[in-house]
Amino acid sequence: MSYLRLEKAVMTNLQESLVREYLRTNRSGAYSSSTLVDCNTRKYHGLLVVPVPELDDENHVLLSSLDCTVIQHGAEFNLGLHKYQGNNFSPNGHKYIQEFDATTVPTTTYRVGGVILKKEVIFQHYEDRILIRYTLVDAHSATTLRFRPFLAFRSVRQFTHENATASREYSAVDNGIKTCMYAGYPDLYMQFSKKNEFIFQPDWYRGVEYPKEQERGYASNEDLYVPGYFEMPIKKGESIIFSGSTSAIKPSAMKKLFDDEVADRVPRDNFYHCLVTAAHQFHRKEKNHDRYLLAGYPWFKCRARDTFIALPGLTLAIGEVDYFEKVMMTAERDLRAFMEEKPLSGKIYEMEQPDVPLWAVWAMQQYAKEVGRDKCFEMYGKLLHKIVKYILDGKHPNLRLDDNGLLYSNGRDKAVTWMNSTANGRPVVPRSGYIVEFNALWYNALKFCASMASEKGDVKGAEMIEKLAAKVKESFVETFVNEYGYLLDYVDGTMMDWSVRPNMIFAVALDYSPLNQQQMKSVVDICTRELLTPKGLRSLSPKSGGYNPIYVGPQAQRDYAYHQGTAWPWLGGFYMEACLKLYKRSRLSFIERQLVGYEDEMDYHAIGTISELFDGNPPFHGRGAMSFAMNVAEILRTLKLMEKYSYQK
């Protein structure tokens, strides 16, 4: 039985199928996404969604969807599905679905009377091209297929509406047409592997509605332009391939291209392989060969903190050291430029966040554990030295090294940590001053760099760093450890945040901890009792004031819930690392049970990947972005850690 297979009962029940989404990416920033029944429920959904750098730094929906109609004996059976205003669904093509299988290539099988039609969809790697193969598995009489494309030509953050500006012009190309609705956009090529007839029948389909946007308190409807339809006969056993792209393709090349792309896919036949495929979806290769990691889909860009946190899990944990090095090469260039107060040339956002250099050190530390310290020193020794010196010299605009050895950052007016939600222009959680994970990362960075310096014969440098680390350790305990056995979240002068939050787990999980064994166990115990869920650690304990665990409603409502009780799988990764560090093999079975909570997500929400966050209360619904890099990364890293501890005596 297939690992990611959903039967007719699920697919034809819209309450079940509309909450399940798919995601395909080309590893260069473009993607294809919708629900499993191809009914778009977000403005971010689309069959071909691509970056258009000539316009802006956003993705743009060119081809919203492609409706296929089966015609026999003059009777038409439209397999498409759209939601219109007034809770009207049309043309209800989902009722013909027999099954959906996403194990290798997402495949939908339709049955219309005696007709069995199989649809397989794939996104070509590194090209803005979606490929769909339709195979007539069975038919007892002459069959014709009709394809009607729905065009948007808009940013993912906007909507399109019927207007007189949109161009209706089109040109014939090999087995298809090319068209462009607005100036500045690339041409959209729609071609088939088989000769067909294009019937020009321009019209606007009005009032298409996106319920996910309604739920989020946004505008939720638009009009889509249909230039006409393609029509062709198909015989039993025959396959026809559709290509939607920003460039032309020879129809004769489509079959080999489709087969080659299928052969390049990792079958999603188990939990691990699903996560590997999800990891690859975050890759972004630019034309200048820069390599990035997107923070998530569908709306996130490349962010510095996310890059360094996710990098080890998305690369090293699955044996892809080379991609780690390629991403680090791009990220190092921008990190150095920031530290040298030069313009950034890349596409990584939020490099100015004060904990970014600390997470960069952590990422390189994971690299050292994978390839050895000698190789790490050879690759990144100069960068490590530069980061530590940069912080010691007080060069960062919002990271002050105080006499007690701790790092101070001002987050009262602008969010500076990963808990970055804002309301009315101010942080919802104004974490400021001595921030617990900043200083845990700082101690870890100092100890790691001191050990590297010592191994390379820099005795004087190592002693200097060790001396500072000892001061940090003493100050950390004095500042953050409280009489209740957990750590204060941040301390700013006389202001102490007593909220029980997950950020203290880093002080245990990191290789070098400023805490003693008893203090570490106490932190883990409290995280287990008050923060642990099947989907990761809560961002706030239910016992703390302001607990708000359900991430729903309009933007303002969601902003106040974002870090006030919602659960985050990536934090669960560090929690599980802390458990293994303290209890070794005795906690393996416990962690295996924790991972079941993540595996349950493989055939729900976005198929084969992990949502951005989850409600902090049962039933722990997935919320936010459909796929989040740090979550996938930390689950993969946990699996690698489990493998390591399994072999330890």
From TrEMBL:
SUPFAM superfamilies: Six-hairpin glycosidases. One of its GO terms (molecular function) is 4-alpha-glucanotransferase activity. Coiled coil: none annotated. Transmembrane segments: none annotated. Pfam families: GDE_C, GDE_N. Residues 20-240 form the Glycogen debranching enzyme bacterial and archaeal type N-terminal domain. Residues 281-637 form the Glycogen debranching enzyme C-terminal domain. GO terms for biological process: glycogen catabolic process. This is 4-alpha-glucanotransferase.
